[in-house]
Amino acid sequence: MNKIHRPRSYKVLMVAPTSFFGDYGCHVRILEEARILEALGNQVTIVTYFKGRDVPGVRIERTRPVPWRPHYDVGSSRHKLVFDLLLAARLFRVALRDRPDVIHAHTHEGAFLALPMAKLWRVPLVLDFQGSMSSEMVDHRFLNPHGPFYRPVRWLETWLDNIADVIITSSYHAEDLLVQQFGCRPEKIFPIPDGVNPELFHPRTSDEAPAVAQLKAQLGIPPDRQVVVYLGLLAEYQGTNLLLQAAAQVLQSRRDVHFLVMGYPGEQVYRRQAGDLGLNGHVTFTGRIPYEYAPQYLALGDIAVAPKLSATEGSGKLLNYMAMGLPIVAFDTPVSREYLSHLGVYAPPSDAAGLAKSISMLVDDPAQARKIGLELREQVMGYSWPGIAQRILDVYDYSVLSHPARNSKPRLKSIERGLRTERIKIL
Fold it and tell me: Which range, of 19-28, 158-167, 362-371, 404-413, averages the lowest pLDDT?
């Protein structure tokens, strides 16, 4: 990517307590933020776990591997305590070497590990809030909301939210959550949505028809079927089981529909569930799809589905679906409403029958489905990564200038006014 001239630049230390790069969700946000910030003249280093896929052109510093858990990928686990100790040690060494201007921590876990470094080097800590830590642990069935550990975890989450110098959220809903449930000051929270590359993710063209037909044939998808696509993690809290239940109900009345379920982990588990539901021959599981191949696989779809159940996490996949010009069926959550507005086709949360009804509505009216998809494509054009990066740099400016070590009140007020004005326009 060519460098873009910008009068200000930062050495940014990103903390990613996950197996980066993993071709899904928050990993895409981390990757695209790093790429575009580098293109704008900044130096970005991502410190992450030992496992993950290296990406050309991105500085990645990894922890040492552990011999007893070599295949750890995603989700909450007691083994992460050891991973995080190793990550903290690696983070210290990288910070000592690079002397960052800003520490950009993804998730509360990242903020917890980065806080001592931020204090030691007297630089701002930016928390990239990607959902409630306690809620996510409950979603992963790692924390019992009625058990003895829930309140301490909730307290820790509240403390981290309030001690971070600045918080970036991917939705206004998350901003409201932080203020109302965690007592954060509104002036330190800046909603910055996920972005998309609309040149890479675009509606399929007539020139691409042969490649689309060839890929369908490779995957065993009959050419005369409408294809419903899902791309993301496969997990209960992502609504995968509900999607398969909805597929079974759709196929009771329409047999000219095919479900293309792309992602990982646990595809074998969901294959068995699909077989038990009688979906054999009408569902294809691809396993993990590298991010760079996502557009050509999404181009097989006529309808996209986003059955995520979490009420606090972002949903960046919606933007990729929108950029592809696909009509989208989603559960009716605040985050889905923010991105899709009146153009989303919604089902009541956790309602497989409602999800099936919404999918069938689009299957039964292909012309209306295409119209909705094209309108979503137009709507997504304001979410380009260069514009998102400019907002992130404004937040860096604000965090640096408002930090006790470098307070500059006159310029700080000017930047803050700009940020508050822009936040009215965005989303």
Answer: 404-413
Higher pLDDT, 408 or 267: 267
CA distance 385 to 75: 27
The CB density around residue 341, as the number of other CB atoms within 10 Å, is 12
N- to C-terminal Cα separation, the chain: 26
Sign of CA pseudo-dihedral 157, 310, 196, 179: negative
Alpha-carbon span 360 to 75, nearest angstrom: 32
The pLDDT tens digits of the residues spanning 257-271 come to 999 999 999 899 999
Q: Within 285-365, where are the H helices?
A: 294-298, 317-323, 334-340, 352-364
Pairing of strands 328-331, 303-306: parallel
Mind listing the pLDDT tens digit for each residue in 235-244?
998 999 999 9
Distance CA 214, CA 275 (A): 26
Give the predicted TM-score (pTM) of the model. Answer: 0.89
CB within 8 Å of 217: residues ≥ 6 apart? 223
- Tokens, residue 145: 């909301």
Burial annotation 398-419 (CB, 10 A radius, 16+ → b, else e): bbbbbbeeeeeeeebeebbeeb
